[in-house]
């Protein structure tokens, strides 16, 4: 069962990259930089390892950065663009502002890659490799990353506000959102599994646990309420670490699956 789950995840990730990453109808390929930047993946892996060892939560942040890039205009690195002439940065979008993180990790990797092979590797490809390595370093699956993306010279602030899923979206809204990107329900369910790792502030899910409509087991609901105050004004700075709920490592998918089905 564990192997089946991981295999399905890898298939969907490959499908996502194919659907959202085609560059001028040119297919992405493995080892795209084999001749032009042979040390690329070694450099990226080393820097991601440093970042994740320093802060385990960074793995989830880097994975999320790649997803937020892909869901707006495709996997083109547009999420990294700052305000410039004619460009309104996606960083200012509501789903990204004071939320997306890890930009400095990408900046450092890009600097080192440019030193090794100037003007060769796209930022879009870096985000894809970084996401894969971040997941693998925290015990998750490792997949082949197909490369050859081109960086966008434009961003879409409106697209980031309109397309990136909200934590409060209904199932119907999420299905429609994914369908607009050429993705189906299977991709939605599987990619939601990226939340296997990572931490979130209470405000991200307070509404769901206090507007309880049998959408989770009652025991889970009570346990979560014990750690999340209903009043958002409560000062919990002394127990800030408790407010960021969630693991920073992947666990055995069998255990997760058995836990879910044993409670329903």
Short description:
It contains 12 helices and no strands. With 264 residues, it is mainly alpha-helical.
Structure description:
Ca(2+) 2 binds at residue 196. Disulfide bonds join 37-117, 70-75. Residues 27-264 form the Plant heme peroxidase family profile domain. Substrate binds at residue 165. The chain starts with a helix and ends with a helix. Residues 1-9, 236-245 and 253-264 have low confidence and may be disordered. The chain is globular, with a radius of gyration of 19 Å. With 264 residues, the chain is an all-alpha fold. The protein has helices at residues 2-21, 40-54, 58-70, 103-116, 123-137, 157-163, 171-179, 185-192, 206-210, 218-227, 240-243, 253-262. 49% of the residues lie in helices and 0% in strands. The chain has a domain at 2-168: Peroxidase, domain 1 (Orthogonal Bundle), CATH 1.10.520.10. Helix 1 packs across helix 8 (185-192). It is built from 12 helices and no strands.
| CA gyration radius, whole angstroms | 19 Å
**Assigned CATH class of the domain at 2-168:** Mainly Alpha
Number of strands: 0
Largest pleated sheet: none
Shape: globular
Q: With helices defined by DSSP (H or I, 4 residues minimum), what is the helix count?
A: 12
- Secondary-structure element order, N to C: HHHHHHHHHHHH
Helix content: 40-55%
CATH topology label of the domain at 2-168: Peroxidase, domain 1
| Ends distance | 19 Å
GO molecular function: heme binding; lactoperoxidase activity; metal ion binding
Domain Plant heme peroxidase family profile: 27-264
InterPro entries: Haem_peroxidase (IPR002016), Haem_peroxidase_sf (IPR010255), Peroxidase_pln (IPR000823), Peroxidases_AS (IPR019794), Peroxidases_heam-ligand_BS (IPR019793), Secretory_peroxidase (IPR033905)
Organism: Lactuca saligna
